[in-house]
Amino acid sequence: MDQLTNALAFANCSITTTKAHELILDVGAQRRKELELVDTQYSNALLGVSFVTVFGICLCSLYAFYRSHMFHLHVRAEIAHLGTFILVQLFVHHCWVATTETKALPAFHGTLMDHAMDKSPTAGPCTISFAYLSYFVQETSLYVARPVLLYTSFCKCGGRKGAPEKQIMHDASGTFKPGRLTAIMGPSGSGKTTLLNLVSGRVFTGSYYGYRLLNHELTSPTDYDVFMSSQGYVEQTDTFIETMTVRESLLFSAYLRLPDSMTLREKIERVQTILRVVQLDDAANTIIGGLLSGLKGLSGGQKRRLSIATELLRLPSVLILDEPTSGLDSTSSLLLVQMLASLANQQGLTVVSTIHQPRAEIFDLFHD
């Protein structure tokens, strides 16, 4: 509990130890109820299937017995009607139980962003805090992921027992604030991408420990991962259909990512707005191009802007980028970081980026 108090104090959280303990107990109780509900569903389903199977076998045996002894036709008909009535009653009862339990589960409609807006502490600017994050990987290629459900906000993912582990990160702590462009700097292999993956909820192997908070509030690991999965994450590699134009690529992503409640006109307007934000409106009808297609199209800086535009379609509160200036010349890198700083200042986004050896002009653009 002292460790949790220090973590909250580091993240500028005005929360007492008693309240933190109560929040942990509330999260644990909620997780236990969810697991008990799942166990009840499986138990009822197995019980229902087993009972129907045994009852069907008994009916078949009785039918064969009566058939072999040549009972009166009227008696056999009455028994058959009775058996059919009992089976129908069991089927109706089983369907009613399944429907009742399904209604007890939380409904999930729309996209992940719609669900995250209900789960997140706020739908606007978001502050991400983390404390005492440590990450371990197993020193064997025969790794099998085995996620572990916890009853507290202390995140953990477990792997195979008994395998030797190597610590990659030790007690990392920090805060990413809205309206600010934050840089994560370090040499190659220092764990910059690992930290981004931990903060964005994209680590599914190894073991990691620590606290992750949204707007200085404790959340369960599940709610945190659901919220972060709806945010923007730009990887180092740009992946597109090279024969498409810039506008076609964004429209294609909009059809897949935006909710069905939006009309076609609204999606097209969203694409046009994002094109202006990332300064690609002049290249909207340009083919993306690339090595595989053999077509000459966008430059490296424009492709990186298109990757950012794709993540901005859902209007995220958080935008995380992994080495966005990698492979770009000095001018393209400067223009890209200027655009990221503009997104943080004007749009109020929480922008976090890893960067390797930036020059002075680029370094001065970062707020933290």
From TrEMBL:
Task: Name where it's found.
Answer: Membrane
Predominant localisation class: membrane
Which residue ranges does UniProt annotate as crossing the membrane? 45-66
- Can you supply one Gene Ontology CC term for this chain's record? membrane
Pfam families for the chain: ABC_tran
Give the record's keywords alphabetically. Answer: ATP-binding, Membrane, Nucleotide-binding, Transmembrane, Transmembrane helix, Transport
Sorted alphabetically, which PROSITE patterns does this protein's record hold?
ABC_TRANSPORTER_1 (PS00211), ABC_TRANSPORTER_2 (PS50893)
Segments forming domain ABC transporter: 137-367
- Sample GO molecular function, one term: ATP binding
Q: How does it sit in the membrane?
A: Multi-pass membrane protein
Q: What is this protein called?
A: ABC transporter domain-containing protein
Give the originating organism. Aphanomyces astaci (Crayfish plague agent)
